[in-house]
Amino acid sequence: MTDLSRKRVSTTEAPWVRYTLIGIALVFLLLFLLLPLAAVATEALRKGFDAYWQALKEPDAWSAIRLTLITAAIAVPLNLVFGIAAAWAIAKYDFRGKAFLTTLVDLPFSVSPVVAGLIYVLVFGAQGWFGPWLAEHDIKIVFAVPGIVLATIFVTFPFIARELIPLMQAQGTEEEQAAIVLGASGWQTFWHVTLPNIKWGLIYGVILCNARAMGEFGAVSVVSGHIRGQTNTMPLHVEILYNEYQSVAAFAVASLLALLALVTLVIKSVAEWQHEREMAAAAAMPPEYVPPKAATS
Q: Any stretches that span the bilayer, and where are they (predicted)?
C-alpha cells in the first residue's frame, strides 16, 4: 500500500458512516422543518384559496402585517448603526470598560424576552418610574407602538454586532492605519476601507436581525397590550386567532410569516453564494508581478 492510499484510508470515513450521518440529518430536516412547514401550508389552504385570501385581507390581519414590517423597518437600521459602532469600538480600540461593553452586547442573549418586556413595563408603565410623567404629557410608550419598537430593538441588537466583532478582530487595523497615514480622513477610511471589508458580515447580521425582529413574540407580547388592529404584530395575531379557534385564519397568517422567513433564508443563501464566488475569484487571481531586483556588481 502506498503512502497516499494509507493517508486516504486513515482520513476518510467508511461509506456507511457518511450515509448514516446524511440520513440522520435528512430525517431531522424532514421531521422538524419540512413537515411543520407542510402542515402550516395545508391547514392554511384547508378551506380553499378564497378563505386563505380573506384571512389575510381582514383588517386586523393587515394591521398586524403592517405593524410587523414597520417595527422591523425601524429596529433594523437602528441596530445597524449600533452594531457597526459597537463592533468598531470593541475590535479596533482598547479602552477602559471594553469588557463591560462586550457584556452589554451579549445581554439580550442571556435575558428572557419576557423579562425584557417586563423591564420596559417597569420603566414606562403607568406605575413605572417614568409612568406619571409620561401620562402627564400624554406620551404612550407601553401598550403602544413605541414600546413594541423598543422591545424589538432590545432583543435584536446583538445580532449585527456579534456578526461583525470577530470579523473585524480577525482583519486587524493595518489597512485602516495605512489609509490614515496616506492622508485619508476617518469617514474616508470607513467608507473605502472598513465597510468593503465587512460588507458580507454586515449583510448576514442584517438578515438575522430582520428575521428575529419579524418573529419576536415574548417581549412584544408583554408590552403590546394585545390591542387588536393597533398593537398586535403577526405572531401575536396568530396566537389570538388560534385561541379563538379560527385555525384557518391563524395558519394563513402563520404561513405568511413562514414565507417571510423562507425569503430571508433565500437571501442569506444568495449572499453566501455571492461571497464564496468573490472569494474564489480572488483566490484564482495571479499574484501581482514583482520585478526582480537589479543585479549588484
A: 21-41, 61-91, 103-129, 141-161, 247-267
